[in-house]
Specification:
Blueprint lengths: L1 H19 L25 H7 L1 H7 L7 H6 L1 H15 L4 H6 L6 E2 L3 H9 L4 E5 L4 H14 L15 E5 L4 E4 L5 H4 L15 E4 L7 E3 L3 E9 L7 H18 L17 E3 L5 E3 L2 E4 L1 E6 L2 E9 L4 H7 L10 E2 L2 E2 L3 E4 L14 H4 L7 H15 L7 E5 L6 H10 L8 H4 L3 H6 L4 E5 L4 E6 L2 E5 L20
């Protein structure tokens, strides 16, 4: 009888994920995906509750004993369930993670090899050895633009999924449709433009503002537009990491009738698709859909300097805001805006939240690479490649593409660091400095209207500057 109940649970589990994880595409709000105010579980949607309580739901309807002792006595059956879940969701076992050959990485030797790899009809993982955000975002953009797809038959199976992994040194990255004057503390001494160490980058995807350093891993999953699902890859990551943590920390899963599963130290996914742990956001995501393809990229906080992060993000403006570092934020305002706001939420490192069970970026990279290989290893070997600026210079890549008349050549490495891309692509807004009484209407980074008579502003010529702000 117990065996039969286990089988019914398996079927229910598969049915839930097939119907809710892989085929629903309207669950998250793309506009606010990168940041989320983590609320109590009473505000969770029914789908998220189902996801977070999948074990409870599996056993509950069958009236199986709820004691941990009973579960341990039936350990073999539970192991079978976990194995089938792992097989279904593409999750490698903890043993596989430890025994996988970490040196099984092929280094890309030159620009032409990189171009040929990207143009090939194959799945692969690629790990960047560069910490330069302009290099890494250029790599991601080039791979996205040049990954092949059958335009004549977009409904045909897509065979070129890619996983890109990179770690950026100190960087503040904001979305393509965001206003850096509102999102970033542009006067921070931590920014390179003010003598600090943090780059400022506008990325090619939407979403909100995030801060990177070498304690944070950036992942990017590429697939076709037809197969794009907002929830799939983060659900995949949650399952991968929880499998790793449960094995490494010897977690015991408590299952109780009519109660929620204990998930202390494990990952969850909120309504917007952000990955959380113990109420803190540890990962934010953004998406890009174009050229009949898509990518879902995000961050994972492992061991970052969060105190510095807070100094780079600009405090959210509120009326009658208290004085902060000598600035009263009700003395300025943004209006007539067309940009996308970041939605702030409390963040924390996984190293702390998991009590050092997941403490290094390298661990997380290994987990994702092995998981990706397991997911797509149907009768083919998924290779992992490394890329290094000394071997693959993107200026040489672009030159080769031009010489060979290759379409979709990116201009990322020549564009991303320019002031035009960073500031002149800012959506229109009006800024009012209530201290001076001056206002500025700004379009594509240029002041098109103002009452400022003191700062030599030339209408339709002068760029808006942070020194005009409070």
């Amino acid at each position: 009888m117990y065996k039969l109940q286990i089988q019914l649970g398996r079927r229910a589990y598969k049915s839930f994920f097939v119907n809710n994880i892989r085929h629903s595409s309207n669950f998250f709000d793309l506009k606010n995906t990168p940041f989320e105010n983590v609320s109590g579980k009473e505000n969770e949607s029914s789908d998220v509750k189902d996801l977070n309580n999948m074990y409870s739901n599996m056993f509950e309807s069958q009236q199986i004993s709820t004691s941990n002792r009973a579960m341990k006595n039936e350990g073999n059956d539970l192991d079978d369930i976990n194995k089938e879940i792992n097989d279904f969701f593409g999750t490698p076992s903890f043993d596989t993670l430890d025994t996988e050959n970490k040196n099984d990485i092929e280094e890309i030797q030159n620009p032409q090899q990189f171009i040929d790899l990207v143009k090939s009809d194959s799945k692969f993982c690629i790990v960047s050895n560069s910490k330069n955000p302009f290099y890494n975002l250029s790599m991601e953009d080039f791979i996205f633009r040049n990954t092949p797809i059958d335009k004549a038959n977009l409904a045909s199976p897509f065979n070129s999924q890619r996983l890109m992994l990179y770690i950026n040194d100190k960087t503040c990255v904001f979305g393509k449709n965001q206003n850096p004057f509102k999102e970033v503390n542009l006067k921070s001494k931590l920014l390179k433009k003010n003598g600090g160490n943090y780059d400022l980058v506008r990325r090619y995807s939407g979403g909100g503002t995030v801060v990177h350093d070498i304690g944070n891993v950036n992942y990017s999953y590429l697939t076709s537009r037809n197969e794009f699902d907002q929830k799939f890859f983060n659900s995949f990551i949650v399952n991968l990491v929880n499998n790793y943590l449960s094995a490494s920390q010897n977690h015991v899963l408590d299952v109780h009738l009519n109660t929620e599963t204990t998930r202390n130290g494990l990952l969850d996914m909120n309504e917007r698709g952000d990955i959380t742990c113990n109420g803190y956001k540890v990962s934010g995501s953004a998406f890009k859909i174009a050229l009949n393809k898509s990518y879902h990229h995000g961050t994972m906080l492992i061991d970052s300097n969060l105190r510095e992060f807070s100094k780079i993000m600009r405090p959210k403006l509120r009326k009658s805001e208290h004085v902060n570092n000598g600035i009263r934020y009700d003395m300025e305002e943004f209006s007539e805006e067309t940009d996308v706001d970041s939605v702030r939420s409390p963040i924390e490192n996984l190293k702390k939240l998991t009590n050092n069970a997941l403490s290094s970026p390298e661990q997380f990279i290994q987990i994702l690479v092995n998981g990706f290989k397991s997911l797509f290893s149907n009768n083919q070997k998924i290779k992992t490649y490394s890329i290094d600026p000394e071997s693959v210079d993107f200026m040489e890549v672009y030159k080769l593409c031009t010489e060979n008349n290759l379409k979709n050549s990116s201009k990322g490495f020549t564009e991303l660091a320019t002031q035009d891309w960073i500031y002149r692509h800012t959506p229109s807004f009006k800024y009012t400095n209530k201290t001076t009484g001056f206002y500025y209407r700004v379009k594509k980074g240029v002041v098109i209207d103002t009452n400022d008579t003191n700062n030599n502003i030339q209408i339709n010529k002068s760029l808006f500057r942070d020194d005009l702000m409070v």
